[in-house]
Design a protein that fits this description.
Blueprint (H helix, E strand, L loop, with lengths): L4 H6 L15 E5 L4 H6 L10 H7 L20 E5 L13 H18 L3 E5 L1 H8 L7 E7 L2 E6 L11 H15 L7
Parallel strand pairs: 1-2, 1-3, 3-5
Antiparallel strand pairs: 4-5
Helix pairs in contact: 3-6, 4-5
Length: about 180
Amino acid sequence: MRFTPEELQAARDRLVPDVAASGLRVLFCGINPGLMTAATGHHFARPGNRFWPVLHAAGFTPRLFRPAEQEELLAHGLGITNVVARATAKADELTAEEYREGGRLLAEKVARLRPQWLAVAGVTAYRVAFGDKHATIGPQQRTLGSTRIWALPNPSGLNAHWTLQTMAEEYGRLRTAAFAEPGEG
């Protein structure tokens, strides 16, 4: 799908519905929808975004899903939401207050849906949203009720110091934890 610059700009501030249900193994959480995501209504839709290839390479999906197939994640115990709901061209257009309010709303959503893991794809967004300035990539000490939290590298193509391979390894660590049998790991 191709969009004109005008069509993409018209998607600014749009909201994109979550792909979510109660009791998921992992609720992935992006920073906020980009303009391509808002224009298509499909999460992580920008062609350079590596979310879908990383999900597959990490073993979360049996094949490479396209953004338009996002609803199929539910059958695998996976979902998608965002820290901040409104669409922007770049995440740096968001204010610290939007991140903090997004963290508050996300905590409410997690309390309602009760996923096993909340996986925030962007450690900086996690730090600001939850006031944890020392958070690093990986599992966090903080929980939201019984939901554990994992900070993941942002799959944006702009996050060049994480390769597809190194991201897949980190996402794979989460997959191992999320799908471990009770009493394991």
